[in-house]
Automatic annotation (TrEMBL):
<dbReference type="GO" id="GO:0016787">
    <property type="term" value="F:hydrolase activity"/>
</dbReference>
<dbReference type="InterPro" id="IPR027417">
    <property type="entry name" value="P-loop_NTPase"/>
</dbReference>
<protein>
    <submittedName>
        <fullName>Probable ATP-dependent RNA helicase DDX55 homolog (inferred by orthology to a C. elegans protein)</fullName>
    </submittedName>
</protein>
<feature type="domain" description="ATP-dependent rRNA helicase SPB4-like C-terminal extension">
    <location>
        <begin position="61"/>
        <end position="124"/>
    </location>
</feature>
<dbReference type="Pfam" id="PF13959">
    <property type="entry name" value="CTE_SPB4"/>
</dbReference>
<feature type="compositionally biased region" description="Basic and acidic residues">
    <location>
        <begin position="158"/>
        <end position="183"/>
    </location>
</feature>
<keyword id="KW-0067">ATP-binding</keyword>
<dbReference type="GO" id="GO:0004386">
    <property type="term" value="F:helicase activity"/>
</dbReference>
<keyword id="KW-0347">Helicase</keyword>
<dbReference type="InterPro" id="IPR025313">
    <property type="entry name" value="SPB4-like_CTE"/>
</dbReference>
<feature type="region of interest" description="Disordered">
    <location>
        <begin position="158"/>
        <end position="213"/>
    </location>
</feature>
<keyword id="KW-0378">Hydrolase</keyword>
<keyword id="KW-0547">Nucleotide-binding</keyword>
């Protein structure tokens, strides 16, 4: 049912300063234990209200209509995502997590209720089976604009800055890797020259020893490239 998919908690904000008040709390089936919890520990009188609900087909139609709205305005898209994230995080931080645990929550149904196009990356969802989520791969979310021009201009500026930072990081990484490769080549060349300059009779060195030494050097160079050895440590080990 639609009302069971769209979960919304309302705090006790209608009864301030000792005044009486009423509010409406919508719960999913998985949250039924919450009724008994707040009735007992919050001293609230709960009344079950039967309302006319929609069916699964109508709920899906509403989800599609909401997605069309989100595609037209990034503000709607981001509002849905923030609400979903806040909902998931509230389950982790809530005091009555034993009564309404995150593991029992229909996360996919909740994501559909918020009409999400993508599931946000959250550590809380790391081990969950989310294969039933209807991901809208045909929609490029990066191209969805804010209807408000000032917000869209700001978004484009931030995206440009982020892309520039990524390009700079990539260039620095490539330069660092290239530098390491050159240092590796120089280290190998230096060792080769030292070996040639030795007065030892080459006939005393077996091919097997040469292969073992080469394999050892390659292992050291791999460690250096991965950052597990410093340039000084590599040089000292190659000199041994």
């Amino acid at each position: 049912m639609l009302w069971r998919s769209q979960t919304h908690r309302i705090g006790r904000r209608c009864a301030r300063s000792g005044r009486p008040g009423k509010n409406l709390l919508l719960l999913t089936t998985e949250e039924s234990g919450y009724v008994e919890f707040i009735s007992k520990y919050e001293s609230l009188r709960m009344e079950n209200i039967k309302i006319k609900t929609s069916n699964a087909l109508k709920a899906e139609e509403l989800r599609i209509r909401t997605i069309k709205m989100a595609v037209q305005d990034r503000d709607i898209l981001e509002c849905g995502t923030r609400a979903f994230v806040s909902m998931i995080e509230s389950y982790v931080k809530h005091d009555c997590g034993i009564v309404c645990g995150l593991k029992n929550l229909n996360v996919v149904g909740l994501a559909h209720a918020y009409s999400l196009l993508r599931l946000p990356r959250m550590p809380e969802l790391k081990d969950r089976d989310l294969s039933a989520f209807k991901r809208s791969d045909e929609i490029d979310t990066s191209q969805i604009k804010f209807q408000q021009k000032s917000r869209e201009i700001q978004r484009l500026k931030q995206r440009k800055l982020k892309n520039e930072e990524k390009s700079l990081e990539k260039a620095q990484k490539n330069a660092s890797e290239k530098k390491k490769e050159m240092e590796m080549e120089n280290a190998m060349e230096s060792k080769r020259k030292r070996k040639i300059s030795k007065d030892d009779d080459s006939t005393n060195n077996s091919k097997e020893e040469d292969w073992e030494e080469m394999a050892s050097d390659m292992a050291l160079l791999k460690k250096f490239k991965r950052g597990r050895l410093s340039k000084k440590e590599l040089s000292e080990l190659l000199d041994d």
